[in-house]
Amino acid sequence: MVFPSQHPASHLTARFILHCWSKRSFSSFSSHLRSRPISIWGLLSDFNSLPIRPHFAGPKISTRIFTPNRPFSNSIGSLAAMTSDYKLKDLASLADLKDGEKREVSIEGLEEAKLLFVKLDGQVHALTARCTHYGAPLVKGVLTPDGRITCPWHGACFNVTTGDIEDAPAPNALEKFDVFEKDSAVYVKADAEALKRNGRQPINQCSIVGDDRIVIIGGGSGTFGAVEALREQGFKGKITIISREPNPPLDRTKLSKALIPDASKLLLRPAQWYASVGIDLVSDNATAVDFDKKTVSTDSGKSFPYTKLILATGGVPRRLPMPGIKDLGNVFVLRFVTDVQEILNAVGDKNKNIVIIGSSFIGMEVGNALSKENKVTIIGMESAPLERVMGAKVGKIFQRLLEKQGVNFHMSASVEKASPSEKDPSKVGAVHLKDGTVLPADLVILGVGVSPATEFLKSNEAVTLEQDGSLKTDESFAVNGLKDVYAIGDIATYPYHGPGAGQGDRTHVRIEHWDVAQNAGRSVGFTLAHALASPPKEVRPKAFIPIFWSALGQQLRYCGNTMNGWDDVILTGDPDNFKFAAFYTLGDTVVASASMNMDPLNSKCAELMRRGNMPTKKELEKGLDILSLDLPSAIRM
């Protein structure tokens, strides 16, 4: 029994020739054949990865543009030499797999390589075994009846039929492998490097075609999601990223969680990748947009025309106006790699007195990262860290966790001022609280939130900013009142579709989560690629549940949203030992969940919320186990 490959070469060759014939370009195809040996992968690259759609076994979940998932040489002989049959160690027969089962399987002769086998609707799929984000074992993830598998850690989601990315923050799709039975054993056909590699290689070539120009202002997670989706979906127009940062998009979450000062270790893709797929990286600051002429102006005096504009400028860290805090040295915010570098330079030989103002996620993460070799004190205005978001009961769990790491807390406290150091009066020396407490400080880090980075739009008469400085959008993230303009990430206030959002005129929310920005970017990229196709196609934006995570000595997972408020928290598990789940309820509706050391509970909750099947407060109070629930096929968001 042989299961069809994701992209059988024979099918592709025939369909590629038909495509060239239909486009009256067979002469160029014939010329190519005369010039060198045939390679279907080389041909696809030379013809700009034409949108050839493969046949898939099993249920069709989403339609994707085909792109080669690994590099091949320019001959069919070489292609054949690169693939071999590999016998599996832990699976004697495909019949051993039950429908709906997922199993991690080892490969004989490749001890470091493993595959994930999934059986769904009678079809067997062999895929990369680890999430391409941070390497979580997908066998411990959440599988849905319609063929989505969600990482147990951070919510990255993949299509098991194709391996394609369904939800962020995965940077790469999963590799998909041929699987067959022979001599009472199960084999996969693949090359060794693909089996060892964690996921499919990204698109690595695209020549610019046509006059469409997409300009993206901002260089963060949302931008990365947008350009990935645009190229995945076959958009071949010009893309320009204008960012004040000198580096391409990077994993900003690691700045506060790990204080990594080297941008090269954080990049989601190297700079050369953007060049190879026809994306221009412009390190400049956008100063104005002419929405009538469709141009973006920058500090350097340049002007960039656009067909479609994506605003993804992120947030600006808030500063405090108190004496000393606003004007002394060694008072830092954290947003960019340069901020981390400055903080670490100030820490120097360690054993420093570090005061963090703000018990936000940024403040707590930085405090945790610096506490091992320094004396860290966190000041918060609430009675417990993160009380506004997580509630005092859960916030105190995080406080105890960081106190075990040596962090000191001053809660329900207000800062009056900072005073200069006796050794160097230009730098901070102490932080003074309004109750008279004086905290020695070699450096101060502010974690008091961010504001939407829309200052450059405030004087623009065409723009209506919300009270908080954000831009209101529709479900496709198109900015209200502006043509061909989209907003994503920290600056976007968009319609929410999760539990507690209401019906009809849905609640609009602004969510400052890295994962949300990337999913919004992927949504806009998907929409624009189809809108600019020939012929254009209107697609429905894909709703998603907000997910975030935090490093607080233990890993916190969170999904959902409480912008409409919550009136109770159901706490289960063993909070004293930092193994718990918290369910945030509004009336009888669970609007959000948080967990620690309970994976994959939050991934399961996110899928239940997405499908409109999250249990009620009453059901949870009766002891219902979320992980024991089956997932329905229908999506009700």
From TrEMBL:
<dbReference type="Pfam" id="PF07992">
    <property type="entry name" value="Pyr_redox_2"/>
</dbReference>
<keyword id="KW-0408">Iron</keyword>
<keyword id="KW-0560">Oxidoreductase</keyword>
<comment type="similarity">
    <text>Belongs to the FAD-dependent oxidoreductase family.</text>
</comment>
<feature type="domain" description="Rieske">
    <location>
        <begin position="89"/>
        <end position="188"/>
    </location>
</feature>
<dbReference type="InterPro" id="IPR036188">
    <property type="entry name" value="FAD/NAD-bd_sf"/>
</dbReference>
<keyword id="KW-0479">Metal-binding</keyword>
<keyword id="KW-0274">FAD</keyword>
<protein>
    <submittedName>
        <fullName>Rhodocoxin reductase</fullName>
    </submittedName>
</protein>
<dbReference type="GO" id="GO:0016651">
    <property type="term" value="F:oxidoreductase activity, acting on NAD(P)H"/>
</dbReference>
<keyword id="KW-0411">Iron-sulfur</keyword>
<dbReference type="Pfam" id="PF00355">
    <property type="entry name" value="Rieske"/>
</dbReference>
<dbReference type="InterPro" id="IPR016156">
    <property type="entry name" value="FAD/NAD-linked_Rdtase_dimer_sf"/>
</dbReference>
<dbReference type="InterPro" id="IPR017941">
    <property type="entry name" value="Rieske_2Fe-2S"/>
</dbReference>
<keyword id="KW-0001">2Fe-2S</keyword>
<dbReference type="InterPro" id="IPR036922">
    <property type="entry name" value="Rieske_2Fe-2S_sf"/>
</dbReference>
<dbReference type="InterPro" id="IPR050446">
    <property type="entry name" value="FAD-oxidoreductase/Apoptosis"/>
</dbReference>
<dbReference type="GO" id="GO:0046872">
    <property type="term" value="F:metal ion binding"/>
</dbReference>
<dbReference type="InterPro" id="IPR023753">
    <property type="entry name" value="FAD/NAD-binding_dom"/>
</dbReference>
<keyword id="KW-0285">Flavoprotein</keyword>
<dbReference type="GO" id="GO:0005737">
    <property type="term" value="C:cytoplasm"/>
</dbReference>
<dbReference type="GO" id="GO:0051537">
    <property type="term" value="F:2 iron, 2 sulfur cluster binding"/>
</dbReference>
